[in-house]
Write a structure and sequence with these properties.
The chain is of the alpha/beta class. Helix content is 29%, strand content 24%. Helix 3 runs parallel beside helix 4. The protein is globular, with a radius of gyration of 22 Å.
């Protein structure tokens, strides 16, 4: 199962709205097939692994990180494929909460006389599938909030200079994290001030996440890089319905996709809109105001905190905007997952659950 989970990670950021699944087929103590969900969500992991195993799948044990699907979609059910291949045993980490599956895949296998074991490394699989599960259960994607700050929690000097607080190794790590998410999210302020590219660079990967900007009025004239590259890498703009028709046409002509929400929609509604489009994993790289909006509405699932060995003082710009908290009892706490050194900086990962 650890190998199946490792294979599943290869699909993160590439398979939405489908889950990233890994599958390993073992016979007589030897791996005869393995696979993971392919870009775009198909073929599924089980299909890839069965094709590799061929006739050796008969009588084998299959380890899969999520319950095999049981419904006919753009591809036949994986449960049927496993039955047809004559496997003897299926070990899965999680039941798929999708209403079209939800135990039916396991039931189909058992009805065919296949031994089924579930719940193996379930906690690890739950964390891996957090985005897919969040979208199914709440309608919105999981959110990873990336913060790159000084020792005293600042993201820029008082004059606004921020390049670069963290070192090159940390910035490379950020690109890898972008690649494992479906979308990169920033606010209008960051788009105007930094004119960001928001693509994955320097890693040799062809995949690029969707670049999302929340701009209620579409006042993004300064976001020249996004405008110039919208036909090459997807750009989605979430805006109020009252945004100017002329500005909408300007961005649509450049190749951007526009998603209208109600006037002044809060962060949860913006995430709901992204979830409705199939997005399961969002990597937020916005400024302090967007970070505060997401934290204040309890929409942040994980925090990736890069800390550099410098202090910018009280006149520096805070990494998180005002939250309006009166007491510590109101503060949502996160649980520390890991801490690692990244070049001359540290990265700490925190989880809400």
């Amino acid at each position: 199962m650890p190998l199946a989970l490792g294979l599943a990670r290869r699909g993160l950021g590439r398979v939405w709205p489908n889950p990233a699944v890994g599958c390993v087929i073992v016979k007589s103590g030897r791996i005869v097939g393995r696979g993971w969900t392919q870009p775009g969500g198909r073929p599924h992991a089980e299909t890839v692994a069965l094709a590799q195993a061929g006739g050796a799948a008969r009588g084998a044990t299959v380890y899969v990180s999520l319950e095999p699907c049981a419904h006919h979609g753009k591809t036949p059910p994986c449960a049927e494929a496993l039955i047809a291949a004559g496997v003897a045993r299926v070990v899965s980490a999680l039941e798929d909460p999708d209403a079209r599956v939800s135990g039916r895949g396991h039931a189909m296998l058992r009805d065919a006389g296949i031994t089924v074991e579930t719940g193996v490394m379930a906690a690890e699989a739950e964390r891996l599938q957090r985005g897919f599960l969040s979208r199914l259960r709440t309608g919105r994607p999981m959110v990873t909030l990336k913060l790159a700050m000084s020792l005293d929690g600042r993201i820029a000097t008082g004059s606004g200079e921020s390049r670069w607080i963290t070192g090159s190794e940390a910035r490379r790590h950020v690109h890898a994290m972008r690649a494992s998410h479906d979308a990169v999210l920033v606010g209008a302020g960051t788009a105007r001030a930094d004119d960001p590219d928001l693509t994955v660079r320097g890693l040799g990967v062809a995949h690029q996440p969707v670049r999302v900007v929340v701009s209620h009025g579409l006042d993004l004239a300064a976001a020249r890089k996004l405008h110039a590259t919208a036909r090459d890498v997807p750009v989605w703009l979430v805006h109020d319905r009252s945004a100017s028709d002329a500005v909408r046409r300007h961005w649509e002509a450049a190749g951007a996709r526009l998603i209208a929400v109600e006037e002044g929609s809060p962060a949860p509604d913006v995430l709901d809109a992204l979830g409705a489009e199939g997005i399961t994993r969002v990597f937020c790289e916005g400024g302090g105001q967007l970070a505060a909006a997401l934290l204040g509405s309890e929409c942040v699932d994980e925090i990736a905190l890069f800390t550099a060995g410098l202090a910018l003082g009280a006149d520096g710009r805070a990494g998180i905007g005002a939250l309006g908290l009166g007491t510590l009892a109101e503060v949502g706490r996160f649980r520390l997952i890991t801490v690692e050194r990244v070049g001359g900086d540290t990265l700490s990962l925190w989880s809400r659950h």
